[in-house]
């Protein structure tokens, strides 16, 4: 059993009361492997954005749109992954090992089904995504082609994310690190090879596929990742959970239990994604009205590209947020399963504190390094001029962002997914979009003005999530 899982189980089943130092150690032990996994995942997106920046704004927009659709795919997988993690955490905390493995097997089948459904929908809807951004001509054709090609990887990635969520619920942070970390390393190198071809030293007469090679590399990595994580579970090398084919026959009660928790989480993800897509359309609209040049469509593409680059870079803050959020989710779920919810509450607060310290460091990096970051990430001076001020502004809101994510993850780990849904609906549609419109069109202007809505939403959500978590009513959530 991985040391992280052993430490958590020991903490929840010892006879005395653990000290804050004991809890801090376990939280950090759970979070560090997840952080390494997040870092490697972030590098994939960063490298994809960097590679697209070596071409032009059309390529960056197409790759950015594919990334947005991939994000939606992950959010839809949360329909299964969130419920799976919460249930398995309870079962593992209560030392019901076989029940946990049965949940894993049911969830893998359900996750694959969600992936297939998403593939079919996105293949048909790809032109609508491009049209919603106002892309035309070559830019539109490239975006539609990239999005459709990328759907090949949605099903294997749904399997990987579902299995990884189940393992984390059991306290196994290392297996997801090894599999997803390896997947991301393969993704980086495969994308570079497919774009440019292998180095001359390898002796291959292959010059690469150009921008579409970015998508090819991603597909190869996802297929290998799914094979790896299923292989680990089937070979019983996973110390936590087991892949047992006879437990994959659909069990309506088990599926309903997963969906009861997962549906609000998936609805939250869908609400967020739709809001973000509307937000992206607003970025393009503000770009067309900015009057930066005589070509309004070129201005729109520059704004979209700057937004994609800025979001990718700001994603660094999500690394500690999701890593310590995963630790908090495991701790809250297992603590409730073990009958010691107070320990889970304390663990969530400690996770939020540890992650926010890293968020403060990243805040300084964005505030003082925005110009240098954009100079490295894109060759187009217009993209740099539009994006750097926005990244500098959002840098001041990284600590609230981290706090909001960690507390929401902790709530989900306990099965409380309805409150996060309510926070997302009110934050995105009550604050983010209206203020982005006002800020971009009438107040500050430019990408900075649009991002004002994002900043206010982040701050408000951090406050509401912290208040909900502190109230502790979520510890009585039934799964």
Topology of this protein?
Blueprint: H1 3-13, H2 20-53, H3 57-93, H4 97-132, H5 137-150, H6 154-169, H7 174-196, H8 213-234, H9 252-289, H10 296-314, H11 318-337, H12 341-377, H13 381-394, H14 398-413, H15 418-441, H16 446-471
What is the beta-strand fraction?
A: under 5%
**What is the overall shape?**
globular
Main beta sheet: strand number and arrangement?
none
Class derived from helix and strand content: mainly alpha
Distance between the termini: 26 Å
Backbone CA Rg: 22 Å
> Level of helix content?
over 70%
User: How many strand segments?
Assistant: 0
Number of helical segments with 4 or more residues: 16
Which regions have little confidence, pLDDT < 50, spanning 5+ residues? none
Order of helices and strands: HHHHHHHHHHHHHHHH
Mean pLDDT: 89
Protein architecture, described:
The chain is mostly helical. 81% of the residues lie in helices and 0% in strands. It contains 16 helices and no strands. It has helices spanning 3-13, 20-53, 57-93, 97-132, 137-150, 154-169, 174-196, 213-234, 252-289, 296-314, 318-337, 341-377, 381-394, 398-413, 418-441, 446-471. The chain is globular, with a radius of gyration of 22 Å. 57% of the residues are buried. The mean pLDDT is 89.
Characteristic key phrases:
479 residues, mainly alpha, 81% helix, globular
Brief rundown of the structure:
The protein is 81% helix and 0% strand. With 479 residues, the protein is mostly helical.
